[in-house]
Write a structure and sequence with these properties.
The complex is a heterotrimer. By secondary structure, chain A is mostly helical. Helix content of chain A is 53%, strand content 0%. Chain A has a domain of 34 residues. The longest helix of chain B is centred in the middle third of the chain and has 30 residues. By secondary structure, chain B is mainly α. The chains are: A mainly alpha, B mainly alpha, C mainly alpha. Chains in contact: A-C, B-C.
Chain lengths: 85, 225, 216
C-alpha cells in the first residue's frame, strides 16, 4: 500500500483547524467578557445594541456559537461603550 | 382523581375534538394518498424493483405521516390558549403524557391501516397470512414512534421553528425503531413469519419500554410552569 | 489559574502524541502511512463518547438539583462533543478513502457516530432556539438523557443491520496486532485528547458562568 501522506495531512490538518478555531473563539469570548467587566458600572437595561454574538456570526461555527450567547442565556452587554443618558 | 382517570380524560377530550372536526384525520389520509402517488412517480413503474423496497416504503409512509401527526399533538392546546391549563393541571403531569400518547396511537393506527390498504391496492401486496405478524410489527413500531414523538412535541410546542426542530430531534432517535421495523416487516411480508427476526422484535420491545418510561418520568420536567 | 495549567498540559500532551504517532510508532505494514490517522480518529471517538456521557450525567444532576453549574457543564460538554464527533467522522472518512476506496460507507461504527452527531447537533439547536434560559436548560437536560439512553439501541440496531443479514461488502481492515509502540502512541493520544476536552469544558463553563454573572 503506497504512502498516502496527503490524506494523513488532510485529516490532521482539518482537525487542527477546527480545534484551533474553537479555542480561539473561547479566547475571544474571554477577552470580551474581561473587557466588559472592566467597564464602568452597568449601563441601563434599555440599552439596545448589537450583542457580542455579532462578532461570532462571521465564524462558520455559528450554530455552535448560539448556545454561547443566544440560547436562553441572558443577552450579554455589547462590547462598545454604553451610551450614557 | 386518579392518575388513570386523568389520562383517560385527556384521551377522551382529544378523541372528541378530533371526532367532531375530523380535521387532522382527513388531512393525514389525504397526505397518505399523495405520498403513495409520490412514491410511485419517484420509483417508476417497474413492479419488480418496487417489490424489494416495499417494507421500507411502507415505513417511510408511516414515518412521514407520523411526523405530521405527532407534531400536532399539542396544537389544540397551543392555539386555544390552553397551554397554561396544562401547566397548572394538578397532580402528576405524566397522566397527560399517557393520555396524549394514547390519542396519538389511535390516530396513527387509523392512518397506518389506511396506508396499508393503499399499498395492497396500489402495489398489489398479498397480505393474507402475513396480517397478524404485520399488525404486531406495526403496533410495536408505532409505540416507539409515538412515545418520543409525544415528548418532543411538548418540548417543541412553544419554540419558534417547531416544524423544523421537531423532525430534527425525532428522526435520529427513531433510527433503531426504523431499522427494526423494516427488517421485521420484510420478514412478515415475505411470508416467513417472525421467527427469524426475534432479535429485532426484542430491540423494538426494549425501545418501546425505554421510550415510554422516559416519557413518563420526564414529562413533569417538560410541563413545569 | 487552573484552566490555564490544564490547557498547557493538554498542549504538551498533544505535542507528545504527535511525536508518538508520527515518529515513534512504526509504519504499519498492511495499510501504510494512512493508518496513522488512527491516532487522531480513535482518541476523537473516545472523547466524543466521554463528552456525551458527561452530558447525560450533568443532565440528570441538573434535573435533580437544578444547579446552574450542572447545566453549564452539560452545555459545554455537548459543544465539545459535537466538535470531536465531527472530527471523528471527518478523519474516519479520510481514512476510508484510500483504505476502502470510498469516502463513506455504512459501516456500523461510522453510522452510529453519524447518528450521534446529528442527535447532539439537535441538542445544541434546541438550546439555541429556546429563549427562556431555565426552560432551555430543562428541555436540554431531558433531551440529553433521551439521547444517551438511545445510543445503545442505535449501536445494536446499526450493528445488526450491517452484519446479521448482509455480510460487509467491503473488507474491513483487520484489527492490527498491536506492537507496543502503536499501543503506546494510542494511549498517549487518548490522554492528550481527554486533557484537551477537559480544558475546553473548563474554559467554556467559566465563560458561561461569567456571562450569567454579567447580567446579575
Amino acid at each position: 500500500m503506497p504512502d498516502h501522506w496527503g490524506y494523513v495531512f488532510a485529516a490532521y490538518g482539518l482537525a487542527a483547524v477546527v480545534l484551533v478555531a474553537y479555542w480561539r473563539r473561547l479566547l475571544r469570548r474571554d477577552r470580551e467578557l474581561t473587557a466588559l467587566s472592566r467597564r464602568p458600572p452597568t449601563p441601563p437595561r434599555g440599552t439596545t445594541a448589537t450583542t457580542p454574538a455579532s462578532t461570532m456570526n462571521q465564524s462558520d461555527l455559528e450554530k455552535r456559537s448560539q448556545p454561547a450567547s443566544v440560547s436562553g442565556h441572558p443577552r450579554s452587554k455589547p462590547p462598545s461603550p454604553s451610551p450614557l443618558p | 382523581m386518579t392518575f388513570a382517570r386523568r389520562a383517560w380524560i385527556v384521551l377522551w377530550k382529544d378523541v372528541m375534538v378530533e371526532a367532531r372536526s375530523k380535521e387532522t384525520l382527513n388531512a393525514l389520509v389525504f397526505f397518505a394518498l399523495l405520498l403513495l402517488f409520490v412514491f410511485q412517480f419517484a420509483l417508476g413503474p417497474d413492479r419488480e424493483r418496487l417489490g424489494g423496497v416495499l417494507p421500507g416504503l411502507l415505513w417511510l409512509g408511516f414515518l412521514l405521516s407520523g411526523l405530521l401527526a405527532l407534531g400536532r399533538t399539542f396544537l389544540v392546546e397551543r392555539e386555544n390558549d390552553c397551554w397554561e391549563a396544562l401547566l397548572l393541571a394538578p397532580g402528576d403531569k405524566s397522566a397527560i403524557y399517557l393520555g396524549k400518547l394514547a390519542g396519538n396511537l389511535v390516530l396513527m393506527f387509523l392512518v397506518e391501516a389506511f396506508i396499508v390498504a393503499l399499498f395492497v391496492v396500489f402495489f398489489d401486496v398479498a397480505l393474507g397470512a402475513a396480517l397478524p405478524s404485520l399488525a404486531l410489527v406495526i403496533a410495536l413500531g408505532t409505540v416507539g414512534l409515538a412515545a418520543m414523538g409525544t415528548l418532543f412535541s411538548a418540548m417543541t410546542a412553544n419554540v419558534r421553528a417547531r416544524e423544523l426542530l421537531f423532525p430534527v430531534l425525532l428522526l435520529p432517535v427513531e433510527v433503531p425503531v426504523l431499522l427494526a421495523t423494516v427488517r421485521a416487516t420484510e420478514a412478515a411480508l415475505a411470508g416467513e413469519g417472525l421467527g427469524g427476526v426475534t432479535h429485532w422484535l426484542g430491540l423494538l420491545a426494549a425501545a418501546d419500554v425505554i421510550y415510554v418510561v422516559v416519557g413518563v418520568l420526564t414529562f413533569d420536567f417538560v410541563l413545569e410552569g | 489559574m487552573l484552566t490555564r495549567w490544564l490547557g498547557a498540559l493538554a498542549a504538551v500532551a498533544l505535542a507528545v502524541g504527535l511525536v508518538m504517532g508520527f515518529g515513534v510508532a512504526p509504519r504499519e505494514a498492511s495499510q501504510g502511512t494512512v493508518q496513522r490517522i488512527m491516532y487522531l480518529h480513535v482518541p476523537s471517538v473516545w472523547v466524543a463518547y466521554l463528552a456525551f456521557g458527561v452530558v447525560a450525567v450533568a443532565s440528570v444532576v441538573y434535573l435533580w438539583t437544578r444547579a446552574a453549574g450542572a447545566d453549564r457543564v452539560a452545555s459545554a460538554s455537548a459543544e465539545s462533543g459535537v466538535i470531536f464527533t465531527g472530527i471523528t467522522i471527518a478523519s474516519g472518512s479520510i481514512w476510508g478513502k484510500p483504505t476502502w476506496g470510498t469516502w463513506w460507507t455504512w459501516d456500523a461504527r461510522l453510522t452510529t457516530v453519524a447518528i450521534l452527531f446529528v442527535m447532539y447537533l439537535g441538542y445544541l439547536l434546541l438550546r439555541a432556539m429556546i429563549e427562556d434560559h431555565e426552560r432551555a436548560a430543562r428541555y436540554a437536560a431531558v433531551l440529553g438523557i433521551v439521547a444517551a439512553l438511545d445510543i445503545p439501541l442505535v449501536h445494536f440496531s446499526v450493528l445488526w443491520w450491517r452484519t446479521l443479514h448482509q455480510p460487509p461488502s467491503l473488507i474491513k481492515p483487520g484489527a492490527p496486532t498491536m506492537p507496543p509502540e502503536i499501543l503506546a502512541a494510542l494511549l498517549v493520544n487518548f490522554v492528550a485528547f481527554t486533557l484537551l476536552y477537559a480544558y475546553f469544558v473548563a474554559k467554556r463553563v467559566a465563560l458561561l458562568r461569567r456571562e450569567a454573572e454579567a447580567l446579575a
